[in-house]
Amino acid sequence: MDELPVVRVPTLAEEAARDLVRGRDDVRRDLARARNRISKLLLRQGRVWRGGSGWTCIHHEWLRKQRFDDADTQFAFDNGYEEVLALETMRDRFDQRITDAVGAEKSIHAAERANRAVMPPTIGAAGHDDRLCCSAWLI
User: Fold this and answer.
1) Is 132 helix (H, G, I), strand (E, B) or coil?
2) pTM for the full model?
């Protein structure tokens, strides 16, 4: 009879890190959909970005200058673009939080390694085993 594999329950910190990554991925997908909606609205209106890569600072400058004669089209564009900006801000906040968490984890591991190097193994071995766009246009 085959034995079941050993499964380790993740720590609270590990599960929290997974929640951060899952949340960031959700925002990334929402951002892609919001950008697609704006791009398609612009295409339906005959507006085509020809200035290089999309969703750069210069592209955002171009987007902010878009005006439409029809008030409903302008309303849809403005709301869609606001959604893109909000999601980009959320993505950046997730990125920063993940970066901070990784930095803190590296510091903890470095301290643990230093402790193991100095302290007897029975004491020191306790614990763990061993992404642009400018923000000026947002305002």
Assistant:
1) coil
2) 0.73
Task: Return the higher-pLDDT residue of 22 and 104.
Answer: 22
Q: Are 35 and 53 in contact (CB under 8 A)?
A: no
Alpha carbons 65 and 44: distance in angstroms, whole number: 17
> What residues contact 50, with CB distance under 8 A and at least 6 apart?
none
Is 34 in contact with 78 (CB distance < 8 Å)? no
Q: What is the 3-state secondary structure (H, E, C) of 24-54?
A: HHHHHHHHHHHHHHHHHHHHHCCCCCCCCCC
User: Using CA atoms, how far apart are residues 74 and 68, in angstroms rounded to an integer?
Assistant: 5
Q: What are the C-alpha distances in Å from 91 to residues 8, 44, 59, 124?
A: 30, 28, 18, 38
- Residues 60-76 have pLDDT tens digits of 999 999 999 999 999 99
Q: How far apart are CA 57 and CA 35, in angstroms?
A: 14
